[in-house]
Amino acid sequence: MKYLLSVLCLVLFSQQLFAQGSSEYGSGLKLDLNEDGSKYVRFILWNQIWARSTQQNPGSSINGESAESSFDFGNRRLRFLAYAQISPRYMVVTHVGINNQTFANGGAAGSQGTGGYGAGKKPGLFFHDAWNEYAIVLPQKDRKFSLSVGGGLHYYMGLSRMTMTSTLNFLAADAPIFNWPLIDNSDQFARQMGVFAKGKYGKLEYRFSLNKPFATNLTPTDVAQQDLAIAVDHNGNTKLSKAGYVEYQFFDTESNLLPYKVGSYLGTKKVFNIGAGFYNAPDATRSSVAGNVSKHDMRLYSVDAFLDLPIGSPELKGAFTAYSAFYNYNMGPNYLRNIGIMNIATNDENFTGSRALAGPGNAQPTIGTGNIWYTQAGYLIPTAKENPKVRLQPFGAYTYKDFEQLQAPSSQFDIGANLFLDGHHAKITGQYSTRPIYRGIGDRNGSKGEFLLQLHIYL
């Protein structure tokens, strides 16, 4: 009984990766399996609950009723992650959860209508990550080089820092989504199955992976001439994809124990990194012209920079955070995906006006062949209190998209603030976001907006 109680005792674990801005949390929940804590199981649990007020795209209907606006509550992310080491060389990672449950959708497969499995009810848990890892060259203070390899369903997907971002410590309320260009098409919620290698050489950190993309089989629309061809996801018997990301860390060195990149350190580290990445998948998309089907490689590239600096005197505890990324996506001719996060609307069959090209609800042109520039910045307001818990961090973000199919670029912004109750472990985020409305190709027709309030807690 004494042994069982000691195993079940939860203690603090001092891994800095998860200790942004809290003086009490340390690094979370850990079960020590030996006296010095070198053998352990670590748990992380988090919920992100949203309340939203949304201007719906023209031609939207919610549960059978025409709607120009809406208010709802939703479960953006409900997650559980565990990882374990019984040797410095071995690690196993398991991460399960749900995403995007609303009152109208996001429920179990096939749920609709009224009843126990009505619309939006009883979503199914699924694996986000599940991989095994082995350290070939252990990191040591007197050794510049380290190397670990692993395999499974993993998040080492290269491309950019934000492609491998942690969802525990965003600067803004959420990621912009185009940082996950394969999301739920040829990946499983930003993950693929394969093998990876990661490590450091001095200030240089690297991540590379070789993966088998999930099968896609969308049928391309046949068109009469080449300039009208539209590529869609169809990879047949998928060929291996290759991904990588390399960054140079000028100031403090970040942890690479897990793949998840921190969004804001709240002044607990001094970080300036520049990075570049890629993702390549042969024959990943197809288009059809006059009955002739062509296959297209998916070639994605990015460069980015991340800055997180304490500002002013240490006792005031101010901090400035900024991130900027440029993406160049070649996914086949005129490839375009319209996505709406937790989109609760469908087409209004009685609508007679000009519909939004992206579709109903809060859908917008999100991913496609073309270029994207994204920049965000935030400022943690200084405080003279000795051990402050409640902190305020205003932030803003700007996105420029220029997609081949739309023939007209767009700009949009997010503006908001994080109210930290205990660092990133307990915070409330308010954010207003705009999205572009297209009524047709080349016809950019104003914007719509969405305000969300998020309660975020992780332990």
Set down the secondary structure blueprint.
Layout: H1 2-8, E1 29-32, E2 40-55, E3 60-62, E4 65-66, E5 69-87, E6 90-101, E7 126-137, E8 145-154, E9 192-201, E10 204-212, E11 222-223, E12 232-233, E13 241-249, E14 271-289, E15 292-311, E16 318-330, E17 336-339, E18 346-347, E19 364-368, E20 370-380, E21 391-403, E22 410-420, E23 426-440, E24 443-458
Parallel strand pairs: 11-14
Antiparallel strand pairs: 1-2, 2-5, 2-24, 3-4, 3-18, 5-6, 6-7, 7-8, 8-9, 9-10, 10-13, 12-14, 13-14, 14-15, 15-16, 16-20, 17-19, 20-21, 21-22, 22-23, 23-24
Model description:
This protein is mainly beta and 459 residues long. The protein has a single domain (2-458), classed as Porin. It is built from 1 helix and 24 strands. The chain has a 16-stranded antiparallel β-barrel. Strands 4-3-18 form a 3-stranded antiparallel β-sheet, with no helix packed on it. Strands 17-19 form a two-stranded antiparallel ribbon. Strand 22 (410-420) and strand 23 form a beta hairpin. The chain is globular, with a radius of gyration of 23 Å.
